[in-house]
Amino acid sequence: MYSVCRVTSGITELPQTLAKVEDREIAEQVKQAQASFDVAAATIRQREADLRLAQTNLERSKNLFERSLIPKQTFDDTDARYQAAAAQLDLAKAQYQQAQARLDELKINLANTIIASPVSGFVGKRALDPGAWVTPNSSFISKLARRCRSSGPSETRGSGRSGFAGLHTHGPLGGA
């Protein structure tokens, strides 16, 4: 269930917000996801620096090993540290993509808390008041469109179902 925090009445123009679903929780989740995304970006920079250092050490060890100045075990250890640093960078990049996807998803959810009208017209009847609890597919508004190309005004009813009778709604009320 969701709480409606604002419902429009009267004449609307394009683009017009018809209703707004309470979004404080989603907005906080977006902030948290943004912080996770920033941490993931910093981790990539750290892992890139680790990989550069491991590569430099590997090149040094290779040079020393080729001149028989260090044992094979030391060279192998340095090579293993380089491989581990490369794997850590790959992991950091995957975590970055995961954090980006979560942030994008939450931003979409936040945008979906706004229900907008695709047509100009007059809101004829409001079925919900601010603070009302709703579920997906709840009917919340009836709107008379201004004269279009047809012979007279057309009526659209918003039920929170995306695309229902020409009224574009999405997000929590639309069940998306």
Summarize the structure.
The chain is built from two helices and eight strands. The protein has 176 residues and is of the alpha+beta class. The longest helix is centred in the first third of the chain and has 43 residues, at 24-66.
Per-chain topology:
Layout: E1 2-7, E2 10-12, E3 16-21, H1 24-66, H2 72-111, E4 114-117, E5 121-126, E6 133-134, E7 141-145, E8 155-158
Antiparallel strand pairs: 1-3, 1-6, 2-5, 3-4, 5-7, 7-8
Written description of the protein model:
With 176 residues, the protein is α+β, with helices and mostly antiparallel strands. It has two domains: 2-22 and 113-174, no CATH class; 27-110, Orthogonal Bundle (Helix Hairpins). It contains two helices and eight strands. It has helices at residues 24-66, 72-111; strands at residues 2-7, 10-12, 16-21, 114-117, 121-126, 133-134, 141-145, 155-158. A four-stranded antiparallel beta sheet has the order 4-3-1-6, with no helix packed on it. It has a four-stranded antiparallel beta sheet with strand order 2-5-7-8, with no helix packed on it. Helix 1 (24-66) packs antiparallel against helix 2 (72-111). The two termini are 13 Å apart. Mean pLDDT is 78; it is low at 147-176.
